[in-house]
Amino acid sequence: MLDSVILSGIVTILIGVGGMFAYFWASNWVLDNVLYPPKGENIGRNINRANAIRPWLFLFPAMFALGLYLVVPVFYSAWLSVTSGVAEDGGWYRNYTLIFANETFRISLLNNMLWVLVVPAASTAFGLLAAQLTDRLSWGNVAKSLVFMPMAISFVGASLIWSFVYHPDIEIGVINAIRGLFGAERGVTLIDGQIIDSFLLMVVLIWIQTGFAMVILSAALRGVPEETIEAAILDGANPFQIFFRIKVPQIMGTIVVVWTTITILVLKVYDIVAAMGNQYRNLEILPTQMMRYFDSGNYGFATAISIMIMVLVLPVMVWNIRQARAEMR
Amino acid sequence: MDNIAGQKSGLGIATHLATLLLVIVWIVPTVGLLVTSLRDQDAISQTGWWMALQGAPLTFVVEVPVDDQREAEGGGWRLDANVFEGASGAALPDDVVGRATVDAFGVSRLRGANLAPGETAETRDGVAVTVERDGTLIARSPEQMEDSLSLPMALIAPPQITLENYAEVLTDMDADDRVEAREQGQSLDDLLFSDEALFGPFVNTLTVSIPATVIPIVIAAFAAYALAWMDFPGRGLLIAIVVGLLVVPLQLAFVPLTIIHEWFGIGKSFLGIWLAHTGFGLPLAVYLLRNYMVGLPRDIIENARVDGATDFEIFWKIVLPLSFPALASFAIFQFLWTWNDLLVASVFLPSDTESTVMTRFVVTNLLGSRGGEWHILAAAAFVMIAVPLVVFFSMQRFLVRGLLAGSVK
User: What is the DSSP secondary structure assignment for residue B115, as one 8-state letter?
Assistant: First the structure.
């Protein structure tokens, strides 16, 4: 049984990768030898035509996959959200008005706002702190590596790790054990469905994302010109002034990039709430709501929520594209 | 810098301490679960994992029979015994005998184990008892002893590292059940692929993530080359689209792709999830690889063109080998992402046990039915995160480089 599973995986890789190479090689060969061979009386015209077509041979598989798996779904989802489910026999807006009328949905929207406000801010702040602390430390790279490590851990794995930290038993959970040091005699259940418990779930994502922020901000800090710092020292600035008045303003652009990147991630995160707060209505966020409707086959509501997540992401998308275009010029 | 400014070393120490504190806070949660996954099931519920090195304290009342007593040389009676041997076996669990040491003992049930090893005290019947740390017992009595001695003991069992939790979660059977199953003629394959075992999902996760990592790399590399080094109308627009697609929420694709896959006859299957991961991973792959390729020295590529190399040859023989660091960065990202993914797997894979991946298995099977059994959950967590951690620590260099290429501009 194990053999057959592994075999099918290997065969797929060979077919997938081999097929791709075969496509690229064969399509180029056809172009150069059959359609427009660079010889004969039309050699100049043939070469030009072949060179005009070739980029599209290189691009076609990627464009096809991107189109089918990302571009088409955006429009298809938008279409479904105004035509399927309750929108079939009512106004096109009915999916949207009905989910807004749902209290759980409003809670999840509120929670999503909280996540978006807290997690990127906290991760960036901790990341900046870690980057600055480890900057000139002899064991800085080891420290960075350890803070960065949670990046490799799945959200589900991280949720297990933190559920154990939050364990209600005073003999088992670290948080309750610490309360014990301060005189508590019995453990308390930390996650029991209060709105405020969302913050305990956010800690998990902050724990994961701080490493990301640290790595990027650390590189940015290294890029701050030495002269500006030396000048500040000569002017008698203390370390805190150097950090907040000299370094931070110079890496502001990178801080914004880190902040927005984490914001995008936060809007999509699903696993942590699914693993740690699945049974509590007060902890719901938009992606968990969306998956509930998706699993129950209510495609109208599911697509309406996904479109709303998209709308929240849209400003960042526009900003990213503008940045990229400015860079290319 | 610190020296230049002539600052006090106080700030330096504070930096060390603050960093240390940060690192401790960051790794303690993981270490806690790792330690727990290696502890005995009973020990987990008795003491916190931070006590694991101290060993678990156990208290027992040991009954020592007096059948072997003999007359002592200076008069009276004497018994030489060992509390861990035959004499007292009934009250002590098997796995404690041979490992534990005596931390304290007593001679009266009422007062409990209040004496240090090596001390001597008299029982109610006037028997003087000494117990050493290794369990050696000497009892002296002026008269022949009639009743067996019942002695309260506080024992310390040294910490024991066990892989039993891992074996249990991978096969869904505890040690006894495994022995029984083997006696009934089941092979290792049968054990590992039983319905509720984690090993099957482990293999499924591999099956999902490796093709889902390799396929997009090939597709993206060709596209990235075209976007970096070929001139054609609409190139800028395509790059902008790729940048835009980087942030499209995956959720948007779930309903449409479920319908499209159904329509193509792919349905929910490994093929479906490979294709989905390929599509979702492409924007980052194209973006990272293009950014890297565009930075390659123009001379090399121009020279090759002048020498008559075709684009296919330039790509295959020059650009692809030179782009290895970027390829490695993306491969690591995509592998970590597909290995760790729960969301895409719950949409594109069927929910039967033959095709469940680990993340989903943990959330639906383990957290639901065995939510309180931390020896199972801890071991499952580490089976799940072991491979990404190895990849992370061995290839951190490429990961960092990829992050920087993608974000700092």
Answer: B
A246 at interface of B, judged by CB pairs closer than 8 A: no
- Whether the CB-CB separation of B229 and B291 falls below 8 Å is answered with no
Percent of residues, chain B, with pLDDT higher than 70: 92
Contact B401, B52 (CB under 8 A): no
Residue B40 half-sphere exposure toward CB, CA atoms < 13 A: 15
- What is the spatial distance between Cα A31 and Cα A25, in angstroms, rounded to a whole number? 10
Question: End of a domain among A20, A50, A83?
Answer: A83
Assess: ipTM above 0.95: no
Q: Is residue A270 part of a domain?
A: yes
Domain assignment of residue A90, yes or no? no
| A133 shares its domain with A282 | yes
Tell if the CB–CB gap between A70 and B275 is shorter than 8 Å: no
Query: In terms of domains, do A238 and A321 share one?
Result: yes
Mean pLDDT over each residue of chain B, to the nearest integer = 85
**Number of domains forming the structure of chain A:** 2
- To the nearest whole angstrom, how far is the Cα of B250 from the nearest Cα of chain A? 8
| Same domain flag for A122 and A23 | no
pLDDT of residue B379: 93
CB-nearest to A13 from B214, B282, B283 is: B214
The C-alpha R_g of chain A, in whole angstroms, comes to 27
Mean pLDDT of B205-228: 91
Of the residues A25, A52, A83, which one is the last residue of a structural domain? A83
Cα–Cα distance measured from residue B356 to residue B32, given in angstroms and rounded to the nearest whole number: 27
Q: Do A174 and B226 touch (CB under 8 A)?
A: no
* Residue A70 and residue A204 share a domain: no
